[in-house]
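Re: that chain you flagged

S.,

Sorry for the slow reply, it's been a week of failed gels. I finally had a moment to sit down with the sequence you sent. For the record, here it is as I used it:
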Amino acid sequence: MENDSYTIHQVSGRIGYITVIEYKTKILLIDTGSKKDYRFLEHFILHELKRKMTDIKLVVVSHVHPDHSGGTHALKKKHGRIVAGHPDLDRWYSGFGGRMQQVADVVFAHITAMKTGAPVRRFWFKRKVRPDYLLKDGEPLPFFEEWMAFYTPGHTTHDISFYHEKSKTLYAGDMIVYINSSYHLPYGLALPGSMEASLKKVSSLKVDTLILPHGGIKKIDDIQETIRPLFSELHGHMGFPIAILKPLTLLSPEIKRERASGKGSPPLPKAL
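Prediction finished late last night. Pasting the structure tokens below so you have them in one place:
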């Protein structure tokens, strides 16, 4: 997708898209895919865009999950790129509970890869991103001031979406997924109350283009109409096997901390 100042590319990873926003003199990379997706990303930038990896001025991480932050360490180690993320990014997998959450997330990544027919590769990754920049809510991105960071927790405690006001473009991360020709909430919904607040937050923005790592680039007429069904889904019932597997998405100590503060309520929907 192209406009006056940049072109949006999406690189196919194992279980989602990596978003490359190309300018004439620099590149903004949103998420890095899984650990093994790094070679797809590198090939795309070097051979299809015919750019240098050093053209990547900034890497922003929407949240730490295997298919979003898995390739970040390789990118930093090999090319020394600057990474930005939420201040609580590295708390998600902290401690024993965090390590168990990482194991569960890697298992789910393998299951997703098998269900989508993708080759099953190693999804294990370093759990600490160690971002160079900590992004504040509503703050412009370093080197890309026209893009704003908005906290949109719900899928995790630290999700960030990225908004370009002039082009009415929103990178929604895993807040919204597009499956079977319709919009849905993500499978892993840690904090329903926070998700509801996040959906209301983005519904106030002027958006006609959604960038979805799970669904692609979508043109929409009305963001409020697009996400309206998600509120019903948010308070609906969970069927089998999601209800059975749900506890394995709630192991991070950050979830307990957030719920104790009251930010994560209301309670999860009941299973059928």
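What I noticed first: Residues 266-272 have pLDDT under 50 and may be disordered.

Talk soon,
D.
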